[in-house]
């Protein structure tokens, strides 16, 4: 039944995308039920006869647990810190990398605002945006608000497109909330630098290379770059 449900969701994707949230929740809930099966196996000691009511209760509990965890965890932004060293560097740099805000769709403005304050406290030399800052479900105003905030960071912000930013699947949903040009203008008007298979000099000892998204046919391969 679960395999069938998964197949249905996958094949009828355009229909389900239109009503994204309930079906995404159903998809995750079904996955939680599958993950719950080993637990049931342990509980019943691999007996053939199982208690249907307890089994159902366990399924529902695991589904609820996964959905609640996901909802709460989405609001918890945990930065990870990494130190990279190279003999070629003559000075040190602090860089912030952030991606997949999916503003308005996955992440609220309140959470993003808090993250912006944390970024400012790090006093980065530059910021890298790894794509999917907005997506097919982001409102026009939400997209604009986000880039306006990045524009106020006071340091260079480099941006690469993700597979959702230009809303390629919006035709299956409610149509685009902004055009590709509007998005590009919004990014650059706020002083952000879009890198589409481009190299930019950060300092005498550091270059940054930003690739076009893999969904675009114009993307250069690594050898070309
Ligand atoms: Fe993403």
CATH fold naming of the largest domain = Purple Acid Phosphatase, chain A, domain 2
Based on secondary structure, the structural category is alpha/beta
Oligomer: single chain
Distance N to C terminus: 47 Å
Please give the CATH class of the largest domain: Alpha Beta
By CATH, the architecture of the largest domain is named 4-Layer Sandwich
Give start-end ranges of low-pLDDT stretches.
Answer: none
- How many domain units? 2
Helix content: 40-55%
Shape: elongated
Output the CATH homologous superfamily of the largest domain. Answer: Metallo-dependent phosphatases
Strand residue percentage:
5-15%
Major β-sheet profile? 4 strands, parallel
Bound molecules: fe (ii) ion
Q: What does this protein structure show overall?
A:
44% of the residues lie in helices and 11% in strands. The chain has 225 residues and is of the alpha/beta class. Strand 3 (157-159), helix 7 (180-189) and strand 4 (193-194) form a beta-alpha-beta unit. The N and C termini lie far apart (47 Å). The mean pLDDT is 88. Bound molecules: fe (ii) ion (FE2).
Write the topology of this structure.
Elements lengths: L1 H10 L1 H6 L1 H25 L7 H23 L20 E4 L10 H13 L4 E4 L10 H12 L5 E3 L20 H10 L3 E2 L3 E6 L2 E5 L15
Parallel strand pairs: 1-2, 2-3, 3-4
Antiparallel strand pairs: 5-6
Helix pairs in contact: 1-3, 3-4, 5-6, 6-7
Fe (ii) ion (FE2) binds next to loops.
